[in-house]
Amino acid sequence: MTDLTVNGQPVRYRLAPDTPLLFALRDVSNLTGTKYGCGTGECGACTVHVDGKAVRSCLLPTAHAEGTFVTTIEALSRDRGHPVQQAMVAEGAIQCGFCTPGIVMAAAALLSANPSPSDAEIGAAITNLCRCGVQPRLIRAIQRAARAARGEETILAAPPPGIDPADAARAVPALTGKP
User: Annotated region Disordered: where (predicted)?
Assistant: First the structure.
């Protein structure tokens, strides 16, 4: 069994210790914003925060996440108001959307560590693959999110429609083993 905190909720996974964290999040906790892409850590669709750092969850065995704090896209911002999310919408840096959660998580971790990244630093930190070709808009979006996070700009992009973020980040007691 592996005990960790996912989106602020204590969770105990009863899985084989080598099960990738990605599958614990998606299949057990029903947090499907974290995407399965390549399974080799190359594409970044599975990026989550582990203790505040961007991690490719397809490469992290659940047992190695023991005692950590994991944040998925569902809990990055309950109201979808995180500057990276808002800037991605405002800059049109979202196409099909499959890679978007991983990119947002990688960008949020970058801005947390470096509130004023250069274009080169963004390129080095955001190695996620996007087949839709949003890279030029992505760099503009991350620069805009950085300005917003520093209080230099306000982004007026409405959150996308969909399910209530509080519902998306809920724990599923029957599957996690926690009441």
Answer: 156-179
Q: What is the pLDDT of residues 4-55, one digit of tens each?
A: 999 999 999 999 999 999 999 999 999 999 999 999 999 999 999 999 999 9
Distance from C-alpha of 36 to C-alpha of 98, rounded to nearest angstrom? 9
Domain count of the fold of the chain: 2
Look-up of token digits 């991350």: 142
In a domain, 33, yes or no: yes
20 and 70 share one domain = yes
3-class SS letters over 61-90? EHHHHCCCEEECHHHHCCCCCCHHHHHHHH
> Looking at the structure, do residues 29 and 12 belong to the same domain, yes or no?
yes
Range of the domain at 144: 83-149
Task: Please provide the DSSP assignment of the chain as one string.
Answer: -EEEEETTEEEEE-S-TTSBHHHIIIIIS--TTSPPS-SSSSS-TTEEEETTEEEETTTSBGGGGTT-EEE-HHHH-TTS--HHHHHHHHTT--SS-SSHHHHHHHHHHHHHH-SS--HHHHHHH-----TT--HHHHHHHHHHHHHHHTTS-----PPPSSS-HHHHT---HHHHS--
108 and 56, same structural domain? no
